[in-house]
């Protein structure tokens, strides 16, 4: 039995160039999405839009009395 012939380097290079072009197009699309999101986002969120830890933990930053510290 003989080993299969090695792949043609020109075909490999062409395939890699095509993959690079596809990745560049995807990066450009993602950059455009990010730019659009950044342009649409308000400069600073109003205080009522800022999440508070108290909404998740009613006792605030300290555990309730009578509980053990982690």
From TrEMBL:
Domain of life: Bacteria
Record's protein name: Uncharacterized protein
Native species: Falsiroseomonas stagni DSM 19981
């Amino acid at each position: 039995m003989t080993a299969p012939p090695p792949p043609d380097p020109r075909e490999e290079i062409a395939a890699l160039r095509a993959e690079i072009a596809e990745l560049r197009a995807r990066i450009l699309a993602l950059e455009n999405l990010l730019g659009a999101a950044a342009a649409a986002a308000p400069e600073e969120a109003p205080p009522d839009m800022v999440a508070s830890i108290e909404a998740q933990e009613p006792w605030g930053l300290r555990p309730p009395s009578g509980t053990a510290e982690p």
